[in-house]
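Notebook entry, structure prediction.
Reason for the run: the old model in the group folder had no record of what sequence produced it. Starting over properly, with the input documented here first.
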Amino acid sequence: EQFNCLGGVATAGGHGHICLYSSWGTNERIVGGITFEIAKRVTEAGFGVHNNSSLDFEVEGMKLVLEKMAEESGVKLLYHTFFSDSIVEDGKIIGVIVQNKSGRQVILAKRIIDCTGDGDVSAKAGCEFYFGEDGTGLCQPATLMFTIGGVDYERVRAFRGNDYKLEWVWKKAQENGDMRPFQDQVMGWWWTPTRPDFLGINFTHINFINSTKAEDLTKATIEGRKQAYESIEVFRKYIPGMENCYMVSTPNTVGIRESRRIKGEYTLTKDDVLNQRKFDNSIGYGSFFIDIHNVSGPGMDKKTIRPDKGFKYQIPYTILVPKDVDNLLVAGRCVSVDHEALGSLRVMPQCGVLGEAAGTASVLSIQENTTPRNIDIKKLQGMLKKQGCIIDEDDIANEN
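New structure, fully documented this time:
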């Protein structure tokens, strides 16, 4: 892990809100397993509040809970360590090279799971990949989350009424020269349940960023911090209940919505998602709307699509399996999906579903002495069900 905590976007990325565990617009839970166990453990520890749809939590508390869960499971952690290169022999990945304060090291393993977000391990191993929007190659903008304190949230809610009122605020602030036109919508404000005057803010927008380049990540971080402080000045001046708000924290890293998507045995498409397609090799469900931020400006992209109530679709195992290299699986936003499908599948509950499936498939492939692409999918599904994962309608009925 390159940072000093587990949790990725939820912790190092400062994103204290996770959704959706449920089908769109309902309380029907479609995510289980380790992903939902985390929500329950965070709540039980007093660091958050969850329901069948979402989890709001204290970022620092999430770090502690995840480390406890890792210790209980016997996971060996190594922080402050960057992936450097993949070791491939005869079309099979056999290990990785990492770099940290101790120097350069080799880690050999029977199976490797690429959860780098950017698909770094797979790309270095020689896997083909998609990148960004079809035609332009542009990726969705980066966002630097930030947390503010000193908020009278009841007054903010009374003023807000709906998001259009705040869109008027941004327009007015820009007309008055108080805000550059990096944003024109409300992306997300999340109450921190353990800190009543704290809000997590998803608002900054940094376009034209390639997150596989250190120079671009540096640019995004600097610009994101400028936008965050600029936003606070606007909040203080224009929004009742925020007159005394102040910066509490910015996270370790900017949030990245899109970069490489590794070409797999199957590529999940926009049509699969919108048609709520079912798959015999399902490993779980997705349900988030096709959430695509403007690749070249503020606000949302015209390709954004909000579905009907109850929307959900199955996720096929084969989007985790790279076409080009054996003994390698991918999980998270770098799986094999098209640009539009990524807009739905990239959110944290589904990244958790993908991760648990990849880990379980790795174990099964070792037990069966075969490659991950050749495992018995029914056995994998049986193992996932025993772990509390939700992969079909029977599981949904049992969990709701």
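Summary: The chain has eleven helices and 16 strands.
The old model has been moved to the deprecated folder.
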